[in-house]
Amino acid sequence: MNIVVIGHGGHSKVVSDIIRANKGNQIIGYLDDKYEKIHMIKNIIFAPVSEAVKINETFDDVKYVIAIGDNTARKSVVEKLGFHVKRFEPIIHPSACISPSAKIGPGTVVMPQAVINADVIIGNHCIINSCSVVEHDSLINDYVHICPNTTIAGTVKIGEGACLGSGGTIIPNKKIGEWTMIGAGATVIDDLPPNCLAIGIPARVRMTKQVNQGEDNESINL
């Protein structure tokens, strides 16, 4: 499968390793706006993101993955491209343990030794990072980033764009609001509202924000 990686920074290094770990995959290009024009190195395309349209015209079977760690930026790129969902491919490391009943959406990246158990549903363009665990019947909405060594217990619901810091734990049956951030090592024992920052053991809301997606303006209430 021919794959174009969008984003060419630190996160894309890990994504590229996962792509290469799956036999039959071939990276044919990296798109990033740090490149001002198209150039080729060892038959690999390096170009600005806008060149994705021309690549589509050249390669009928090309798939894309957004290798950008920031959830808001990843969503913005997907919306600007406007590609059909079939143009994106889930990228799963061979060492990940995925239940046959789990569902993983297009564009989602599952990293080494992650565990996704029975009847989990993971949306589009998520990041399930190394050694994280998503237990049975949990629902992970689009653009979520689950950082390394995070444990999500059963029947948890996580809203769009949420980010769960490394080494955190969410106990069963909890709901995490959209675009909420949970600090590294936090233990979540209560539902969390949208657009907040929660830290500590147990996790407590320390900051709330109202954000217009795609804009920089936000109001913070401490």
Automatic annotation (TrEMBL):
It comes from Neobacillus bataviensis. Keywords: Transferase. The active site is at H136. Substrate binds at G69. This is Acetyltransferase EpsM. The keyword Transferase applies. GO terms for molecular function: transferase activity. It comes from the Bacteria. Transmembrane segments: none annotated. Acetyl-CoA binds at H145. Residues 2-81 form the PglD N-terminal domain. InterPro entries: AcTrfase_PglD-like, Hexapep, PglD_N, Trans_hexapeptide_repeat, Trimer_LpxA-like_sf. The record marks D137 as: Increases basicity of active site His.
